[in-house]
UniProtKB/TrEMBL annotation:
<dbReference type="GO" id="GO:0000018">
    <property type="term" value="P:regulation of DNA recombination"/>
</dbReference>
<keyword id="KW-0233">DNA recombination</keyword>
<comment type="function">
    <text>May be involved in recombination.</text>
</comment>
<dbReference type="Pfam" id="PF04381">
    <property type="entry name" value="RdgC"/>
</dbReference>
<dbReference type="InterPro" id="IPR007476">
    <property type="entry name" value="RdgC"/>
</dbReference>
<keyword id="KW-0963">Cytoplasm</keyword>
<dbReference type="GO" id="GO:0043590">
    <property type="term" value="C:bacterial nucleoid"/>
</dbReference>
<dbReference type="GO" id="GO:0003690">
    <property type="term" value="F:double-stranded DNA binding"/>
</dbReference>
<dbReference type="GO" id="GO:0005737">
    <property type="term" value="C:cytoplasm"/>
</dbReference>
<comment type="similarity">
    <text>Belongs to the RdgC family.</text>
</comment>
<dbReference type="GO" id="GO:0006310">
    <property type="term" value="P:DNA recombination"/>
</dbReference>
<protein>
    <recommendedName>
        <fullName>Recombination-associated protein RdgC</fullName>
    </recommendedName>
</protein>
Length: 305
């Protein structure tokens, strides 16, 4: 269950206290199957196990894992429009008249009623956890839209959840550009093998993407001398995890290295024990990384008040 991407929000100590009722609050927002005439449903699903009796949270120390789920009907607009056109054409041929806008709308609504019960259903899951001790909300996605949707679901369940986006005191783009240009990285941090450089002067400026390449090469330095800045940078932290850090401070392509995976072992008795071990290891590793991100970029935790 190791996360592959990290989109981060922060919350205050007072908000952390309110999260003690998370398990109770989620119970009233459990994901239910799509009804015949519904386009989709959203809710929470058990991180471990299945069924109505399975818990909707999984906690290890101060961290609580939550899984946001959705079911969406797959009914492409092109399919509906093609069927609508056939019906409109049939009316024109059989009755010798044009179909007006109001009638087309009614026919389309009837089509949706007819087609929705037969549409395929796509399920999706997004894992997230709250670290109540340090005030982090961590979502396993690089999509801002998906993260905001999941955050909205948690807010609806709790009634209020004032988690806020990161507000760095140090400009990530400037700081990462300096790391790459000088090779002077914080302790424990080394360059990976990919980056994305852009000319920040214009929205349509040149973009240079490097993958599987030595980032201290002359070619990369030439881009920096020409005024490009770092928008994404591959990094390795303490030889335990690699990732690509964006100027939006979203962590992408997160990968735990062999030394971490070896600590997991493979002697777990059941799925619950395996989940417990992997979640504990995940949160322990990320606690160290997030603490360093807070230090490097100045990411203050919101204060109560």
């Amino acid at each position: 269950m190791f996360f592959r991407n990290l989109t981060l929000f922060r919350f205050s100590p007072a908000v952390a206290e309110d999260l003690n009722r998370l398990d109770e609050a989620l119970a009233e927002h459990r994901l239910r199957p799509c009804g015949p005439l519904e386009m989709g449903t959203k809710g929470f699903v058990p991180p471990v196990g299945r069924g109505e009796e399975a818990a909707l949270t999984h906690a290890v120390k101060a961290c609580t894992l939550v899984t946001v789920g959705s079911e969406d009907k797959l009914l492409p607009a092109a399919v509906v429009n093609d069927e609508l056109q056939r019906k409109v054409q049939k009316i024109a041929e059989e009755e010798g008249r044009k179909v007006g806008g109001r009638e087309r709308k009614r026919i389309k609504e009837d089509l949706l009623t007819e087609l929705l019960p037969r549409a395929f259903v796509r399920s999706s899951r997004l894992s997230t956890y709250v670290d109540k001790r340090h005030g982090w909300l961590v979502l396993d996605t690089s999509s801002r839209k998906s993260a905001e949707n999941a955050l909205t679901q948690i807010r609806e369940a709790l009634g209020s959840f004032p988690a806020v986006p990161l507000a760095p005191e140090e400009g990530p783009r400037v700081l990462m550009t300096d790391w790459l240009a000088t090779g002077n990285l914080p302790g424990g941090l080394t360059l990976g093998d990919e980056c994305e450089l852009r000319d920040p002067a214009t929205a349509t400026g040149a973009i240079a993407r490097c993958r599987r390449q030595e980032l201290d090469s002359e070619e990369v330095k030439e881009h920096l001398r020409n005024g490009k800045q770092v928008f994404q940078l591959g990094l390795v932290f303490d030889d335990r995890m690699s990732f690509v850090l964006g100027e939006d401070l979203v962590v992408r392509k997160l990968k735990f290295l062999d030394v971490v995976m070896d600590e997991m072992g493979d002697s777990h008795q059941d799925a619950a024990a395996e989940m417990d071990a992997s979640f504990a290891l995940l949160t322990l590793e990320l606690e160290r990384l997030l603490g360093k991100l807070e230090e490097w970029f100045g990411l203050p935790r919101p204060a109560d008040g």
